[in-house]
Design brief:
The chain is α/β, with parallel strands linked by helices and 181 residues long. It has three helices and 16 strands.
Length: 181
C-alpha cells in the first residue's frame, strides 16, 4: 500500500536514511501503525497490531522517540537528532514540521488539553509545548523554551516561559501581543 505521507517524510531526509538517521525508524513505525488502523478488522489487522506494538516498543526504547499511532501528523515530518522525544497520544502536528532532540509535546495535567501545531512549525532542541496551545503556521520555538500559550503564525518564541520575540519580521514587545494565555 502506497503512503504519500511517509514518502513526503522521506523526502526531507538524506538518501538511505535507515543507515544514517535513527529518527526515521520511529517515523516508519508510526506510519505503519496509521496504515494498519485503516485496514478492515480481521486476522491480518490483528496480527499486524501485535507486530506493531512489539516493534513500536523496541524502536521507542532504542531511539528514545515515542510517537503513538493515534497522533495526527501531516506529511513531511522531520526529526533531527533522535532521542528523548515524547508526543502525547492526542496531539495534532501539521505538514512539514521539524522536531529536534529532547522535544516534549503534551498536556500540563492528566486529562488536560494538548497542543495543536499547524504546518511548517520548527521546535528547537529540548523545547516543551504543553497544554491546549496552538502553534501557528511557520512559527519557530527556540531551544529549551517552554511554550504555555499560543504562538502566532510566523512568530518566533523563546524562553521559560516562552515569549514571542518576533512575529512576521517585526519585533514584538511582550507575550500579550498576539497571544492568548
Amino acid at each position: 500500500m502506497r503512503d504519500a505521507d511517509y514518502e513526503a517524510d522521506l523526502k526531507r531526509y538524506p538518501r538511505r536514511p535507515f543507515l544514517k538517521e535513527q529518527s526515521v525508524w520511529a517515523i516508519c513505525v508510526y506510519r505503519f501503525g496509521r496504515r494498519l488502523d485503516m485496514r478492515k478488522p480481521g486476522f491480518v489487522r490483528k496480527l499486524g497490531e501485535k507486530w506493531y506494538w512489539l516493534v513500536y516498543r523496541f524502536v521507542e526504547t532504542l531511539t528514545g522517540i515515542s510517537i503513538p499511532k493515534s497522533v495526527e501528523i501531516g506529511p513531511g515530518l522531520r526529526i533531527w537528532h533522535f532521542g528523548n522525544i515524547f508526543v502525547h497520544k492526542d496531539v495534532k502536528i501539521g505538514a512539514r514540521c521539524t522536531l529536534r532532540q529532547g522535544v516534549t509535546i503534551g498536556n500540563r495535567k492528566e486529562g488536560g488539553p494538548v497542543p495543536v501545531m499547524e504546518d511548517d512549525v520548527e521546535l528547537g532542541a529540548y523545547a516543551q509545548v504543553l497544554g491546549g496551545v496552538r502553534i501557528g503556521t511557520g512559527a519557530k520555538v527556540g531551544a529549551m523554551s517552554v511554550v504555555l500559550c499560543d504562538v502566532p503564525a510566523g512568530a518566533t518564541a523563546v524562553g521559560v516561559p516562552a515569549k514571542v520575540i518576533a512575529a512576521r519580521g517585526e519585533k514584538v514587545l511582550a507575550v500579550e501581543q498576539g497571544m492568548r494565555g
